[in-house]
Design brief:
By secondary structure, this protein is of the alpha/beta class. Helices cover 53% and strands 13% of the residues. The chain has 13 helices and 8 strands. The structure holds dihydroflavine-adenine dinucleotide. The site of dihydroflavine-adenine dinucleotide has 24 residues, from strand 4, strand 5, strand 7 and helix 12.
Length: 306
């Protein structure tokens, strides 16, 4: 119930205004978001890289409804990639891009062109791009754009959400040589017609998808904080004889940081997804929806500061 309410609120403009202007929101945001500027993103990336972690930087923003905004987002990614190269962080830092932030809802071709501009900048910087996956109404379009991008940039990463019924089949299509695939549970509110609803059925689907990816020829990116799924990944690694570095773990900035460092210390490739920017509202609401104690944390800071 709480998860559903928070995910509905994540797309409600009235609640958005209320939360964005609440005096304490920024303190809460700081736990999950690097800061508002490129300098903040570079600073946090430098700290994580020094601890042996890889990074994927996400410039916050989604559901863009103006071409000018999509263009500004694209330019901001290009500047970010240039800065990563200048700071010699590009070898351990890629970027994550939401197609809805670069115009997908306006025109798929516009989003594809903008994403290609970002990929060109990533190639020049010596790094890669992963295209985030959003709600199920965009899945076909997003996979189609990724297929097109991969013709010129074969390293473009795709994201599969285990909660969708279709995902095991999508994993089979994507588990080919050179294909980078991030597997996550899925963060949006989806109907039963397209998505598993219970935690257990999502977890079981995750394991089926993981098996396909680990047994395949691609590069699996195991995006979860779930200790059971991390243990199961280790079992698949042993069963398939995969070497460390032929797959990677991924977690979100601010969530299980000690586990992130433990895995990196054990020689695993560990990438932290680091969002930055002003438009943190939708991202924050999805993180609150994932864990009731985050809501308590949020409410407690409202009570103590408000
Ligand atoms: P689950 O939610 O079951 O959590 C397992 C455990 O992890 C919890 O018990 C808790 O200890 C900890 N935990 C998880 N979330 C927490 C939180 N918010 N705060 C505190 N502790 C928490 N989704 C999507 O739809 N499209 C995408 O492109 C991406 N991209 C993406 C990239 C990366 C690198 C990650 C790690 C995740 C995503 N996601 C995503 C989000 C993903 O779909 C999912 O919502 C979250 O990762 C939470 O799911 P877990 O697998 O961690 O399991």
């Amino acid at each position: 119930m709480l998860r559903a309410a928070l995910l509905t609120a994540s797309r409600n403009s009235t609640v958005r205004r209320l939360v964005e202007t609440a005096p304490v929101s920024r303190d809460v945001v700081r736990r999950f978001v690097a800061g508002t500027s490129i300098d903040d993103a570079i600073r946090v990336t430098g700290t994580l890289a020094a601890a042996g972690l890889r990074v994927s930087l996400d410039r916050l923003g989604e559901d863009t409804t103006e071409a000018g905004h999509a263009d500004a987002t694209t330019k901001a990614y290009v500047t970010l990639l240039q800065q990563l190269a200048e700071h010699e962080l590009a070898s351990v830092t890629e970027v994550s891009v939401k197609l809805s932030a670069v115009g997908q809802a306006l025109d798929e071709a516009m989003a594809r062109d903008n994403a290609a501009t970002i990929c060109t900048a990533a190639a020049a910087a010596g790094t890669t791009v992963t295209v985030d996956m959003e709600d199920h109404t965009t899945t076909d379009s997003t996979l189609s754009v990724i297929r097109d991008l991969r013709a010129d940039f074969p390293w473009v990463g795709a994201v599969i959400q285990a909660y969708l019924h279709r995902s095991e089949a999508d994993c089979r299509d994507l588990a080919v040589a050179g294909s980078r695939v991030r597997l996550c549970k899925g963060a949006y509110r989806e109907p039963a017609s397209v998505a598993f609803q219970s935690r257990q059925s999502v977890d079981r689907s995750y394991v089926r998808c993981l098996r396909v990816l680990m047994q395949g020829d691609g590069f699996p990116m195991v995006a979860t904080h779930d200790p059971r799924l991390i243990a199961i990944t280790q079992r698949f690694v042993a069963d398939t004889g995969r070497a460390q570095g032929s797959y990677e773990y991924q977690m979100l900035y601010g969530i299980r940081p000690n586990e992130q460092r433990r895995l990196a210390g054990a020689g695993e490739a560990m990438r932290v997804y680091v969002p930055y920017g002003d438009e943190w509202y939708g991202y924050l609401m999805r993180r609150l929806a994932e864990r009731p104690s985050n809501v308590t944390f949020f409410l407690r800071s409202l009570a103590t500061k408000g």
